[in-house]
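Usage

Read records sequentially. Each one opens with the input sequence:
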Amino acid sequence: MRKRTVKTSDVIEEKSEVALEYVLGGLFAFLLGLLGYRYHEYKFGEYIFIFAIALMGVGLTSIGYGVSRAWRVREVTALDVECPFCQKINHVVEAPTSDFLCSFCNRSIPVEDGKVLPVFQVRCGYCNELNFYNAKTEVLICEKCDHEIPIAQEDGKAKKRLPRGFVVQEDPNLYDLVLVETGPKEEELIPVLQHMLALNRKQVKQIMEEVPAVLLTGITRKKAEMLAAQLAAHDAKAEYNPISE
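and closes with the structure output:
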């Protein structure tokens, strides 16, 4: 199984969240213990005193541990990877082994055999919109008008076609894309939803906790089918429903 490419920023965010939880929890415990120590003589003095001292000790230990976790964030490694779309530098923990989202343009950076693939540009013959593709692109759908843009493979081979079972339908209705189940591969699903919705990791995790959740609204059937299939590839379940007039 191919290992997921991990961004340095995601690791720092996760470690910082844990550190903050320990610090805030420890601070609360310490203040509660301090309050008990201050007023222990009013009722059950000896027992309250012992409990307050213990609570203050737990609080200080938790704060110390949280601070040490925060300090270790500085040890997270950062390898520079240039995005082929926007030429901005992304920082990852180690050499990428799978596609990952650019932190700046939110496009999926193609990776194969540990190397970032070059991207190429082509204009849509229907609307003249500029689109990107790479050597791994199987089907290219225009980002503006949702028409398929034929991509020729290597010399002597046929042009790439829509995958079997993908039916082009001229449907005038607009649809809502609804996430019904996140499935067991939530960590794989997070970067997919980040790219799809142009949201950060925390926002995506909040959406995943509130399923069923509307991901996109007012999209064509073709785009809804394509995005639902993309989510299904990561064992998530999505439905697309026509918008009622």
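Summary fields computed downstream for this record:
- The longest strand covers residues 175-181.
- The radius of gyration is 25 Å.
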